[in-house]
Amino acid sequence: MQTESIKQKAYQILDNLPDKATWDDLMYKIYVRQAIEAGIKDSNKGRTVDVKEVRKRFGLTK
User: Fold this and answer.
1) Does 10 have pLDDT greater than 90?
2) Average of per-residue pLDDT across 16-41
3) What's the N-to-C CA distance of the chain in angstroms?
4) Contact, 48 vs 31, CB < 8 A?
5) Contact by Cβ (8 Å): 11, 26
6) Distance CA 2, CA 38 (A)
7) Which has fewest Cβ within 10 Å: 12, 30, 56, 59?
8) Contact, 47 vs 40, CB < 8 A?
9) Do 26 and 17 form a contact (C-beta atoms < 8 A)?
10) What pLDDT does residue 1 have?
11) Residue 2 in 3-state DSSP?
């Protein structure tokens, strides 16, 4: 499976935006895409923390 280039991904984001989208809309979509990809990369490399541990660190119950 060939990996998409950044340029191809950017075109997909642009194609899915409404015609009246703002620069802020575009920037938000790019930010969200980047954050999701970073999270998936971290998860694939085992850089995650169990929910129970997070709750314990922040003193949260249930």
Assistant:
1) yes
2) 97
3) 41
4) no
5) no
6) 19
7) 59
8) no
9) yes
10) 43
11) coil
> Is 13 within 8 Å of 26 (Cβ atoms)?
yes
Q: The whole model's pTM is what?
A: 0.72
Give the Å distances, CA to CA, from 9 to 22, 48, 59.
Answer: 18, 26, 40
Q: What is the distance between the alpha carbons of residues 41 and 47, in angstroms, rounded to a whole number?
A: 9
13 and 29 Cβ atoms separated by less than 8 Å: yes
Q: For residues 59 and 62, what is the distance between their CA atoms, to the nearest angstrom?
A: 10
- Could you write out the DSSP letters of every residue in 15-49? HHS-TT--HHHHHHHHHHHHHHHHHHHHHHTT---
Residues contacting 42, CB < 8 A, separation 6+: 48
